[in-house]
Design goal:
single chain; mainly alpha
Length: 100
Amino acid sequence: MARVPSSVIAASGLVGGYGVARWTKQRPLGGAVLAVAGAAAAQQWRQRAGGKAAGALSAAYLAAFAGSHPLAKKVGAWPAVFGVAGAVALASWAVADRRA
């Protein structure tokens, strides 16, 4: 069975986490989606690209989450989330998925 690329998992975690938090009005639930997807992506990053790369991509994932908040004040919530999700997906693909 084919694996879902880590870039898709990471981007889906950022977008899905925000969507769940917004639509359910339960921020912890959105955080849970974000965390589960981040952990799943990190596991694949570690398997495909090693521990250092997984650490760097995990840091990028968390930075994207944190950075989306001030960015949202400038461009709006959804554009900010899609922007950071795209950046994380691109980094994940370049470092881990492209090799698979």
